[in-house]
Structures are given as structure tokens and as C-alpha cells.
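Backbones bend. To wit:
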Amino acid sequence: MSAEVNYRIGVDVGGTFTDIVLVGEDSKLFVKKLSSTPDRYDDAIIDGISSILNEAGVLAVQVKEVCHSTTAATNAVLERKGARVGLITTSGFRDVLELRRLRVPTLYDLFYTPPEPLVPRYLRFEIEERVSAQGKILKSVDLQEVLGIVNDLVNEGVDSVAICLINSFTNPENEQVIGKFITERFPKLFVTISTDVIPAIREFERTSTTVANAYLMPFMNRYINSLRERLSGMGIKAPISVMQSSGGMITSQMAAVKPIFALESGPVAGVAGATYLSRKMDIPDLLTFDMGGTTTKAAVIENGNPYKSGEYEIGAPISRSSRLVKGGGYLLMVRAVDVAEVGAGGGSVVSLDKGGSFQVGPRSSGAVPGPICYDRGGKEPTTSDANILLGYLNPEFLLGGALKVNLEDTRRIFEAKVSNPLKLGLHETAFGVHQVANASMARAMRSVTTERGRDVRSFTMVAFGGSGPCHAASLAALLGIRKIIIPASPGLFSSLGLLAADQEHEFVRSLMMNRGIAHVEELEDQFMLLEQESLRTFQVEGYEASNINFTRHADVHYIGQIHELTIPIPDLTPFNEIKELFEKEHERTYGYRSINEQIEVVNIRVTGRQIIPKVRQTDLTTIGSSLYNYVGKKPDRKAYFGQGWGLIEVPVISRYDVDLKYRAGPAIIEEYDTTIVIPPDWSVRRDSDWNLILGLES
């Protein structure tokens, strides 16, 4: 037991598994994968951390930081388990949440019903106040009116209040007066004011975002406090950081009061790790493929940076026609890594429709009972069951022996429920399930590339997640991608990504600037104000100013357009150069530019990052050597690769057995946290950092 080495812990909680990694300053890595506990997510976290510390012989006091990503907040919205929320808004704007944007995910469905607002109409109250579009207070707040409203809300059992007033982004004074009054008079109520969350133009988007934050704040407070108390109880006093939807980390205190920024923390953690690899390996353009037990996530990294969007919807499936058709979920005006997500994972249930065709997902067997092969009472065939029957996964055990496989029940139930009704052979049916799952996942891949004006074939795929490396080669071939990277510990890569991310805060301000001026003083002054605000936030959290750097972006559109493109803005950029940067991105995304149209800068954004000192940063390219050792020869097994190849004998090897030179497929590479399938027409090699590189034969 060594007391000299300090350690960091990464914890990623998914719908099926909770992944935990323990990394020392000496780059020594310990990993743990266990089933999630949806009824109380921190049960699996505490059990896993306790187990991994014992196995590693590490004391709790040696842990200096815990980095966390979770789907808990997302699930609270989807399952409607958030707070009872009341909304206070300007007179005339009570029904903004129901008017929405008149967008629907199914264009010709006359009977489409949008999601129920998170605040019912009887808990939405109007007050007589007004701020002009220029920020002048036309009517101040009457606190007696506010008192009556809040008393009514309290009598209705409300425990969280959202405040969103018209034009408050130009002058937040009225919102701040209401927020301060409620906090002082009703200290047990949680309060969210829109200008603290997103001080930007657009009433519906800002109201929807503010309400969602209020809806989640009590839940996230309880979750973070419970986790902190239980970690402290086992001797871990280290600070907790939480992954943001934008790909940076924030303190747990910030995540508790602004949970909306951490809503997509789970899907984004793996992208953060892939971004780190992109820069270290000097591969600027990557397409991430993260297949877990419940869903598959895809994102794009260009020039070493993840592509981000200025808004997203929670609870909305990818539309069949286009991911750009929205209206199926709760809209959040929060800048986030653009992650496409589909309900296709290892636990996705295979079902037959009335016409005799089968579909894979979006329903999942979850952590309990899980796929049939897990032998935990599952009775519905899943993607993982199909992969077991194809010979891709170990027919006896998974997770290094911790999870025993029931092959007999898997075969029997799969035949009875899928193969026999379709009158197909067992291998043909299982391979069909594998292909249908790939087709669903390909839709996510194209939605972040083709639908954004990018050629999917030009990217290198980086595959991770517990199920990703099993499907990576066949999915890449379907998309026309010829190169794949499988990083070290791919099944727990999202947890590792947490340890490679920087602390980050983003601030936004609406400008509506459309003058074709050559000087940049006004724009520069506004950027500097946001940078000062960001710096103050970091200093309050205890970070030194010397370790903070800033990047600038602007949301720009042609005058008359209703949505913007976000472009990076170098310091002291003249307005005409901003126009050229915007038009270049507009042409890339939409295929054209309108050179005679004037542009408008709608919002400016500043992202501040606290750069992790090298002595604390986890280098994801050095951890492989502590993971992979010679494990002896494993028995070959038969695997099915479709009618062209049929059922063939395949060598089963470990990553240690892969050379620095390409080795021709087929091969199956078994690891503790995943299985990597190399089809006959692919080859594989290992680089010096223990990443696997897959290439498609000509």
C-alpha cells in the first residue's frame, strides 16, 4: 500500500452499467464495470469505488479528485421525476411554453401532441412589469404582487420557482429583484432566474431552459449532496467535478444550482476523451461511435475540437426524415457537444411486428434484468444475445469472468421468439439483428456528418463503449469508413474522458449587431466584459488567473434568418472578416453563400478554461502499458460473418498479441470491458500507445 501516489477517479453512470476508473500520477490504471442501480444511482458508485480501492490497495485519502458524468438528470426529465415547478413571467407571456415554435417532428401528423410542459398552466403566473428591448425599465416590480403569487405557489406544493421576464437579457434588474425577494422570504424554495442561466434573446427558448433548470435543481441537489456525504463517509474528502454538456468540467456546487449545463454529461464524456486523443495522435477529424447497453451516441471532432450546437432537445428521438426537424422534446438553449443518440445498444430488445418483420430497439432490457445471456431473468432477445450466438462474444463469461453467460437459454429463447417465426436459421437471424442494429446506428452517424454538410467517409472512426468495438468494423464498412481507432480500455473510455477534460465556464450576451463597420472597439469591449465575468467565476472557485485561457465565438446569421451558425472569432476581428468567416461556414453547412446579404451578430460567447497542470493531467496515451499483459493462448471459436463468409474458425487473442504491423482478419480480441471483432476483410495493428488501428482491405 503506497501513500506517496495520488489518484483521480472517473465515474460514468449509464443506463445499464456504471464504469469506474482509478488512475495514479504514475499512469497506473485500475478499472471496474458493474451494473447500474437506477433506483439509487450512487449505490453502484459507492460499491464500485470501494471495490476498486480495495483491489488496487489504495487508501481513500490518496484520492484527490472525483470526476463524474451521469444520465441521472436526463432520466429525471424523461421519467418526469423532477420538482414541482412554478413559473413567474411577464404579463402576456404565460403560454409561451405551449405556443413553442410550431415545429413538429412528423410534418404531416395533424394529431401530433407535443410533450406536456414541465410547468402546468395553473402554476404559471404573470406579473405587471416591463423592460424595453433596449434595456430600459418601463415598469418596476411590485413586491406585494410577487408575495401573493409565491404564497399561491407554496400552497400548491411548489418547491422550485422559475423566473423568466421579457427582455430581461438586456437588463436583469427586475428578475434579480424577484429572485432576491423569494430567496429571503422563502428560503426553502429553489429559485432559478433566466439571466443567471442563459441571458440571451428568444423568449420560448429562454423560458424552456429556465424551467428545465428549476425542474432539475432540487433533484440534482439531493443527488450531489448524497454522493458527497457517502464519499466522505468512506474517507474520500476530495472535490467532485461534473462533466458539462459542452465537454468541460464544473464543480459539483455549480452542477447542483445549474444542472441544465450537465444534462448531457454522460454522452459527452467519451467525446472529451476522443478529443484528447485527436490532439495527441494528430488526427484532427474523428467520428466518435459510443455504443453502450441502452443507446448509441455519435459526435464529430473537426480540427481537434468537438462540433457544438447552440441548442438541443431532451427526450426527442432523431426524426426519421432529418435530425434538423425538431419539436419532439424539451428545448434547451444551452451550448453542447452535438451528440446524436439512438435507442440501439447491447441491451436493445429484438421484437417482431404484425407484418413479420423485426426491429431492434429503442426499448432496452436495461441493467435489470438485462439480456438473456446475462442469466438474470431476461426473457427478451437483444443485440448482445445475437452477438453471443454469432460467436463474437465469449459464450461462457463476460467482464473477465464476473458475469456468467447462459448460452443454452439464449439459443432456446432466441429461436422461439425470433428465428422460428421468421423461418430462418439461427445464425442468419442473429446476423440480421446485427445488421439492423448497424442500420439504426448509421442513422446517428450520418446525422452529425452528412446532415451537417460533411462527408462521413472522410472521417476516422474512434469506437468505444462496451458494445462499440464489436460493431465498429461492420458499421464502418456500411458507412464507407476505412480506418478505426479502438483506444485502450474502450469499454470504460467515457470514465477516462472525464480525467482528460478541463474545468470550463461559458458566458453569453446578446448583441444584435449588424453594422458594417471596420473598427472593432465595441465588439472587443463586449468580449472583454464576458472574459472578466468568466475570470471572476474561476477565482471564486479558487483557481489562479494564470491558468485560465479564453476562446471567443459568435452566433451569426443573415438578416431575416431565424437561426444562427456559431463561428470562432479571433481577437480583434473586423466586422468584414466576421462576415467572411460566417459565409464560409454557411457555404460548408448549407452549400451556398449570399454575398449581397448583410449579416447580424446575434450573440457573443466566451469560454474560459482552467488548464489542468501537467502533473495532474491524465495522459490517455500512457495507460495501456498497465492494462495489457500476456494472458496465454485462448481457444479458437467459430463465428458467423454473413452468407459471403459463413461460419468460420476465428482465433481469439488479446491486445498484447497484436503486433505493431498489420495482422489480417478474422480475429476476436477479448478484453475485460469489451470484445473487438475483426472481420475477414479487415486488418488490425497496435500502436506504441496500445491503441488498436483497424484498416479495411482494398
Summary: The mean pLDDT is 88. DSSP finds 16 helices and 38 strands in the chain. The first helix runs from residue 41 to 56.
